[in-house]
Amino acid sequence: MKLPPGFKYGIPNRSRSDYSLCTLIKDDVRINVLVYVDDLIVSGNNSVVLVQFNGYLSSCFHMKDLGVLKYFLGVEVARSPEGMYLCQHKYALDNISETGLLGAKRVPFPME
User: Fold this and answer.
1) What are the residue boundaries of the structural domains of the chain, listed by start?
2) Which of 37, 67, 79, 83 would you call most buried, defined as having the most Cβ atoms within 10 angstroms of its Cβ?
3) DSSP 19-52
């Protein structure tokens, strides 16, 4: 995959702590791209530019736009007027169900 201009290696828009996160800041527009294997999260502060950027990515390689982010790697993304929250409620519920403890009663004190 060939990275678009502004996302090339060696440009200081790459996160030093997370090599899978690329950020482009130009004037008052910000675009973030988080890459995990063959999954991308594209976010930013300008919806018109994001649509154009997604179109550009689609012209470079086959890409399916799944819309607003709801789940990524088992983590639920919940939105509110205050911001975005990450939750693993479904993951925990699936684990409880898998172990057969879904109908178990709660214990009033912690285990030692």
Assistant:
1) 1-66, 68-112
2) 79
3) TTEEEEEETTEEEEEEEETTEEEEEES-HHHHHH
